[in-house]
Design brief:
mainly beta; five-stranded mixed beta sheet; 25 strands; disordered N terminus; WD40/YVTN_repeat-like_dom_sf
């Protein structure tokens, strides 16, 4: 699986969530609102590589960390409500659309399926090729794997039987996101491009070209109108899905590992390579709020 560059910390690290609310006006900069709220969540002892919102509960966030744990957080109380330790360093995580299962990938190309209610592993599979980000379709009967070969593997679920292989990019595919309206899926690649695919025809319909480095993470907003993407570039790109044009860019201090829109609100969570005073990974992720025009 895709590895993340960085120094292994000597001191224990903590995860923090900072919630900040901003107004987003179409094609105008984001301005800080008077109603700002900060919430800090602590618990992980290594960097958070990816996070995802519970599709059925807008206040719950699941995180995958190199400390081998998966944790479920309540953004209202700022507390960890569930956690489980898995076999490897976790770098990818996604919810099944009905909220019943969580899929987690680690650096050893091992996939683990968690039952959310019990918060325990119910299935594990090891792949013999580089597997990166993972996703279900909206109905939960198809499962997508992005690979280091530049392909997207389409599997049936829950059998995980291979249905189709898509040759998506000329370099490794790192990330994938499913349109909440069920029309498209997007793929981010080491070739710096993001491709948009028709999920019924399995054909590429558009590419996004604003990023210059390998694309680490992508996410559709809840209306399917916006696509957030990030790479080693020090900004998060927000693009119009229909036109492919840039809507806004959010500046960042460090490269981003994960961006994720809230399933019901215009809230964008992102986790990056923030460093502490010892130049070790801090394990920080932030949530930015947006007001629709």
């Amino acid at each position: 699986m895709r590895t993340k560059d960085g120094v292994t910390p000597i001191v224990e690290k903590m995860v923090e969530i900072h919630l900040r609310w901003f107004g987003l006006v179409k094609r105008r900069p984001i301005e800080h609102s008077a109603k700002a709220k900060d919430i800090e969540l602590k618990g992980h002892t290594d960097s958070v590589d990816q996070l995802c919102w519970d599709p059925k509960h807008a206040d719950l966030i699941a995180t995958a960390s190199l400390d081998k744990t998966v944790r479920l957080w309540d953004a209202r109380s700022g507390k960890c409500s569930q956690q489980v330790e898995l076999s490897g360093e976790n770098i990818n995580i996604t919810y099944k659309p009905d909220g019943t299962h969580i899929a987690v990938g680690n650096r050893e190309d091992e996939l683990t399926i968690l039952d959310v209610r019990k918060f325990k592993a119910i299935h594990k599979r090891k792949f013999n090729y580089e597997v990166n980000e993972i996703a279900w379709n909206l109905t939960g009967d198809m499962f997508f794997l992005t690979t280091g070969n530049g392909t997207v593997e389409v599997l049936s679920y829950p059998s995980l039987r291979l249905v189709q292989t898509l040759k998506a990019h000329t370099a490794g595919c790192y990330c994938i996101a499913i349109d909440p309206l069920g029309r498209y899926f997007a793929v981010g690649s080491a070739d710096s491009l993001v491709s948009l695919w028709d999920i019924k025809e399995m054909l590429c319909v558009r590419t996004f070209t604003k990023l210059e480095g390998p694309v680490r993470t992508i996410s559709f907003n809840h209306t399917g109108e916006l696509l957030a993407s990030a790479s080693l570039d020090l900004f998060i790109e927000i693009s119009s899905v229909q036109t492919g044009r840039s809507v806004h860019q959010i500046p960042c201090r460090d490269a981003m590992n994960s961006v994720e829109w809230n399933p019901k609100l215009n809230l964008l969570a992102h986790a990056g390579d923030d460093k502490n005073k010892y130049q070790a990974d801090e394990g920080v992720f932030r949530i930015f709020g947006f007001e629709s025009p």
